[in-house]
Amino acid sequence: MRFDENAQLDTSNINDLRGGGGGGGGALGGRVAVGGGGLGIVGLILYFLLSQLGGGGFAGGGGLALPNGLQGLASGQTADTTAAASSCRTGAQANTQLDCEVVAVVNSLDGYWSDTFARSGQTYTPPRTNFFSGSVRTGCGGATSDTGPFYCPADQQIYIDLSFFKELETRFGAQGGTFSRAYVIAHEYGHHIQDLLGTTSRVRGGDTGPTSGSVRLELQADCYAGVWGNHASTTPTASGKPLILDVTRADVNAALDTASRIGDDYIQQNLGGGRVDQSSFTHGSSAQREKWYMTGYNSGNPAQCDTFARGVNLG
Fold it and tell me: How far apart are CA 107 and CA 162, in angstroms?
């Protein structure tokens, strides 16, 4: 996967908090779930992992209750688009710089979902995507980089420490790559689509288990990510031309590899205590995550992503 070098990038929906006092207080730990239920690609999986390893408490996912009394992040957090905008202007930068790569993926996602909503007679409101380092304040509470990328329904914004992508390769063993990273962003966009459609409100916070609402929500977000992936190389942006070029089968395989590395069972067995506890599932197994990503990718149709349908086989 690569980007059209001459394409113009739009950073108007990007907040760059990395150099603007993004929160500090790295020892604080996250409390996203307490503050309003942030939805992340790994989220509560990491909480359970650290619980097993005695690593402390944080969460970013389906609403696990953490102890009260956690302090908010330091004041002075500011949002600034200038850092990203100064270097992220064309697809050429997206091919060489990680932050610009994410900007380009965001542009493509907004292009696809805006068109899809319009064809359904609905209005699409894009989320803002925040780059942060270490820790951040959100409408869902405070969070650290350990939470992983997440979407906050309370403020309709996505938060990501870009170092997570390296963590995927070094800690989770994912092969990585541009389309793999795009899957992560597209998954968070999937949560925004759920929020706009009212799906998020159907799930009760703290719901766990292999067929729980939390798992259904995450698998649907994977499916929506696959839907966008199907259209990634044909979706025009503001220039009228597709920004993304040359999506190959190897790219899709890399995305599936990432999906397999962040299933509840894989993380519990390989990064946790070695025992798989299905009752604590919040995101779905590796096989389920791969299945639903490919359901979206093969169909290219969001209507095929109804993980809440009666009698649906989650995999």
Answer: 17
